[in-house]
Design brief:
The complex is a heterodimer. Chain A is an alpha+beta fold. Chain A has one domain. Chain A is built from 3 helices and 7 strands, in the order H-H-H-E-E-E-E-E-E-E. In chain A, the strands form 2 sheets. In chain A, strands 2-4-7-3 form a 4-stranded mixed sheet. In chain A, strands 1-5-6 form a 3-stranded antiparallel sheet. In chain A, helix 1 runs antiparallel to helix 2. Chain B is elongated and about 105 Å long. Chain B is built from 20 helices and 35 strands. By secondary structure, chain B is of the alpha+beta class. In chain B, helix 11 packs antiparallel against helix 12 and helix 17 packs parallel to helix 19. Helices cover 37% and strands 25% of the residues of chain B. In chain B, helix 9 links the parallel strand 17 and strand 18. Among the domains of chain B are: 163 residues, ATPase, nucleotide binding domain (Nucleotidyltransferase, domain 5, 2-Layer Sandwich), CATH 3.30.420.40; 89 residues, Immunoglobulin-like; 122 residues, Substrate Binding Domain Of DNAk, Chain A, domain 1; 142 residues, no CATH class; 59 residues, no CATH class. In chain B, the strands form 8 sheets. In chain B, strands 5, 6, 7, 19, 22, 23, 25, 26 and 27 form a 9-stranded mixed sheet that branches. In chain B, strands 1, 2, 3, 4, 10 and 11 form a 6-stranded mixed sheet that branches. Classes of the chains: A alpha+beta, B alpha+beta. At the A-B interface, helix 2, strand 3, strand 4, strand 5 and strand 6 of A face helix 1, helix 7, strand 25 and strand 30 of B.
């Protein structure tokens, strides 16, 4: 079963904020390359955030599952089902991303995504 | 203690938990399927082929009520059953509780006996309801079940926190306000016996009601007041409503706000991600104050207090007869609940126990005092009567991979479950048949481990001798490891004018790979001048000389390509991505100019510019001369002789390179580059031992200084940093990596620097030095004010003020004084 590790909440809060900015920046048409800063933040989270990250190849990865299929075997997301049907669900809103803690080739989910799902038929 | 029950279970209406007493302590076990949580929502969902319990089942509760059941505890001991659509069958509350208890058993680490448990029940449960709970325990595989009332369990959790003092005789209240239910109990200890005297409750009152109130009474009205909506509340709450998805987002935000309001006086809730009826995007913040929230939940809290007062008057008790109110349940974290209860009842509240896990913990304390019955206890692991043969792809680039298993033996009444080790996938319990087929979802670019467990009728794990299922999604057949380090040439701050290598991708990294580094420019680039930034990516050992490695890609950014002046100290972001076929793409972004330069280098082409080659040869020649001079000084004749031979070849190379014209079209540049590389390797080989010895010496000197100053002025944190930095000394000390030795020396230098910087001697020395330099400072008036301030600080022994003044004086030094030697590369 999954190994449970404790991650300082401040890391998760920061990553959630970066994710929020990333979502907002994606909808902007602006000339100041905000997306570049967001990408840079993402890379820092993956490569540099944790002490000795470069040596131990450990860090965080976050993933936006928007548009992916959903069913209740997916324990990487906490879902609220919108609409009436519970069949053929797809993720339509992502409030928080999936955050994984990576250590070498192994990674563990330290934050489940918080999502809203809807039946494909109702889209 | 092995002959005691030791396991306590809180089988709750909304949430359940399991705790274990071991080594004198109670541990509430984590939910392995829900990282970070040690509770299990008491909800069961039925699909055609699987039974799901807990959080995943709860997700479906509202929308698929005919196949998902929650709050069944309320019906324990009744003849009522639930019709389950998906399996066209009835399920009794006992059966449903059994699934929850089975799931809780799976929280236990492997190898621990789970054949007996103390299970808690509400104070209101009668004999039939109690027996029904016992039956559920028995069906879940507990051969022995002892029941304990929830308020007593919570009281035991409190009593065990104060083992040193016996709980005084008297009465107290257990106020249990959870996620969805409220219970109040009056507990008494008399003649050493703890007893529930009276109780009351509301099965439809809890924290989720408060979340709903925030949405209904604060958020929706605020949105409706600012934007155009037709009956937003109905549109949100109706499953077919236009804004139904937003309702769940608001509920999530309301819950977060509620939690934050326990520690803050107000919270900003961001409302966005929707448009109103006029297509205007909704994007604003609603302030939810603690006062507004308190006002909102006052009727509910007052209702609970009304029930407490009923109990007191029924039992002819007054506030002074009650020792305290023990607060249990997650909603008692809310400060207003605590404050209001204390204020209206005039009874002191007691918040010492963890309100969420207290009942399970108290049950485990009780279990530690109850002996296990012997003779009729099953072994927790069924002896193996099944064998398994599995088939699946060990590597895959697909999103999911088919897993097949063939089971030999009697599979009747057995179930199986497959979970992914990262916590992201769980099939739920499925009936075991002779053949299993499952599509296992894979996380990209990692090793995916899955665990298959088989359970018998009593939920005991059946030993299958099956190995962990491992599917590598990190690289397919086309993935290949890097044969050499890939490095970036950077300026060496310690040796002005020389360069060193910075490791980008380590040897044996799996392709494709990508990395970004940000460097600070060490020179200014004037627009239109002849200044250049050189980005040189090399292949070869990262501890070698830059000139000794093969150039993979070389990108020059000249001042003519830049739209504006770039100041020294601004950042350059470099991104390197290398494809599976080893194409290297270098992207350089100059932050100050907001300009990007990008070039892809393929291994088929070599990128050698004549100007870069000339510069490299020149640098290498100077390096060789310095080495010869050093070895002569140190009378290291053997190395000097070796270097003299190399020098002759270097002279020839220099001449040939000088003769090369910039637009030479022959292969000459490549031949010369190879020659240069070989000469650099020869210099490196001849001098490496000498360099390593010097670096080791430097390291030990620095370590000695560091230890000395740590003894006198070091903090605990700095001692820990020192210990961490030196604990791996053996490995880097005898490696051939000069980079590693330099890095470790730098770590020690930084520890030492941070201590020295705050010592009075250092601060005073720096101040004196700055006073000497003050005539050249940019603002004389300010400098003089700072200098007199510094003298006062020294007299007053105000060292932190002196540190600030030193910093301000440093800032007044003209740039030329602070200017470092300009590097070859530019960063």
């Amino acid at each position: 079963m999954s190994e449970q590790i404790k991650v300082a909440k401040i890391y998760l809060d920061m990553i959630n904020q970066v994710f929020e900015i990333e979502k907002k920046a994606a909808g902007l048409r602006e000339p100041n390359s905000i997306q570049r800063n967001v990408n840079r933040l993402r890379e820092m989270i993956e490569q540099d955030l944790l002490p000795a990250a470069a040596e131990g190849q450990h860090g965080f990865i976050y993933h936006n599952p928007l548009g992916e299929n959903y069913n209740i075997t997916r324990t990487d997301c906490e879902a609220s089902i919108a609409g009436e049907s519970t069949e053929n669900l797809v993720i339509t809103e992502v409030i928080k991303p999936i955050i994984r803690y990576c250590n070498g080739p192994v990674n563990i989910i330290v934050q489940k995504a918080v999502v809203v799902v809807k039946s494909k038929g109702s889209l | 203690m092995d002959n005691m029950i030791n396991i306590g279970i809180d089988l709750g209406t909304t949430n359940s938990a399991i705790a274990r007493f071991a080594d004198g302590k109670v541990q509430v076990l984590n939910n392995p399927a829900d990282p970070g949580s040690n509770t299990l929502p008491s909800v069961v969902a039925f699909r055609e082929d699987a039974i799901i319990t807990g959080r995943k089942a709860k997700e479906l509760l509202e929308k698929d009520a005919k196949s998902v059941v929650g709050a069944f505890k309320r019906k324990m001991g009744t003849s009522e059953s639930y019709w389950i659509n998906s399996i066209s069958n009835f399920k009794t509350p006992v059966e449903l509780s059994t699934y929850i208890l089975r799931e809780l058993r799976s929280f236990m680490p492997p190898g621990i006996s789970v054949d007996a448990a103390v299970i808690t029940i509400p104070a209101s449960f009668d004999t039939i309801q109690s027996n029904a709970t016992k039956e559920a325990g028995s069906q879940a595989g507990f051969a022995q079940v002892t029941l304990l009332q929830e308020p007593v369990a919570a009281s035991l959790a409190y009593a065990n926190m104060h083992k040193e003092q016996e709980l005084a005789e008297g009465n107290w209240l257990v106020y249990d306000l959870g996620g969805g239910t409220f219970d109040i109990a009056l507990v008494r200890i008399k003649d050493g016996e703890m007893k529930v005297l009276d109780h009351e409750g509301d099965n439809f009152l809890g924290g989720t009601d408060f979340d709903n109130l925030i949405v209904e009474k604060i958020l929706i009205p605020a949105i409706s007041a600012k934007y155009s909506f037709n009956n937003l509340e109905t549109q949100m709450k109706s499953a077919s409503g236009k804004y139904n998805a937003q309702y769940y987002i608001l509920l999530q935000k309301a819950e977060e706000a509620k939690i934050l309001l326990s520690s803050k006086s107000s919270v900003e809730v961001v409302i966005d991600g929707m448009t109103d009826e006029n297509n205007a995007p909704v994007d604003f913040e609603v302030t939810v104050t603690r006062a507004a929230f308190n006002e909102l939940i006052t009727p509910q809290i007052d209702a609970t207090i009304g029930m407490v007062k009923n109990i007191l008057s029924r039992n002819k008790l007054q506030a002074k007869d009650i020792l305290f109110t023990l607060m249990v349940g997650g909603s008692t974290y809310i400060p207003f609940v605590r404050q209001r209860t204390e204020e209206l009842l005039q009874i002191p509240i007691n918040c010492e126990i963890d309100p969420v896990t207290a009942v399970a913990a108290g049950a485990a304390h009780y279990a530690a005092t109850r002996p296990k019955l012997t003779g009729n206890i099953n072994v927790s692991k069924s002896s193996s009567r099944l064998s398994i043969k599995t088939t699946y792809a060990k590597t895959s680039k697909e999103k999911e991979e088919l897993f097949l298993a063939k089971i030999t033996g009697d599979t009747t009444h057995c179930s199986y479950r497959i979970t992914r080790a990262d916590g992201g996938f769980d099939t739920g319990l499925k009936q075991l048949t002779e053949r299993i087929s499952e599509y296992l979802p894979l996380v990209e670019n990692t090793f995916n481990y899955f665990q298959l467990t088989v359970h018998d009728r009593e939920s005991n794990t059946v030993e299958m001798h099956s190995e962990m299922i491992g599917i590598n999604s990190a690289f397919g057949i086309s993935g290949q490891p890097l044969p050499e380090d890939i490095c970036l040439e950077v300026d060496d701050e310690e040796k002005p004018g020389e360069t060193k290598l910075l490791l980008i991708f380590q040897k044996n990294s799996i392709l494709p790979s990508r990395k970004s580094v940000t460097r600070t420019l060490n020179k200014s680039i004037q627009e239109g001048s002849e200044d250049k930034i050189r980005i040189n990516v090399l292949e070869g050992p990262h501890y070698a000389l830059p000139e000794a490695n093969k150039s993979l890609g070389y990108l020059e950014i000249s001042a003519r390509q830049i739209f504006r002046d770039i100041a020294k100290g601004s950042d350059i972001e470099l991104t390197f991505s290398i494809s599976e076929s080893r194409d290297l793409t270098v992207t350089a972004y100059l932050n100050m100019a907001d300009q990007e330069f990008k070039q892809t280098f393929t291994p088929k082409e070599r990128h050698t510019t004549v100007s870069a080659l000339k510069l490299d040869v020149d640098t290498l020649a100077r390096k060789l001369e310095n080495e010869i001079f050093d070895t002569a000084e140190q009378e290291n004749h053997e190395v000097r002789k070796e270097l003299s031979v190399i020098k002759k070849e270097m002279d020839v190379l220099e001449t040939e390179t000088k003769d090369l014209v910039d637009d030479d079209v022959t292969d000459k540049r490549y031949q010369l580059e190879d020659k240069k590389r070989k000469l650099a390797q020869a210099i490196d080989n001849a001098t490496r031992d000498k360099h390593i010895a010097v670096l080791r010496n430097k390291y030990f000197k620095m370590k000695g200084w560091c230890l000395e100053i740590l003894d006198q002025h070091g903090s605990e944190n700095e001692r820990t940093r020192f210990y961490n930095a030196t604990s791996d000394e053996a490995s880097f000390m005898y490696s051939q990596s000069s980079v590693r030795l330099k890095e470790q020396t730098e770590v020690l230098r930084s520890i030492m620097g941070s201590i020295i910087w705050r010592t009075p001697i250092c601060l005073k020395d720096l101040f004196r030095h700055l006073v000497d330099k003050s005539p050249g400072m940019s603002n004389q008036g300010e400098a003089q004010v700072l200098i007199s301030g510094g003298r006062i600080a020294i007299e007053a022994r105000d060292w932190s003020r002196l540190a600030e003044i030193n910093q301000d004086l440093l800032d007044l030094l003209p740039k030329s004084v602070r200017q470092d030697v300009i590097g070859k590369v530019g960063f």
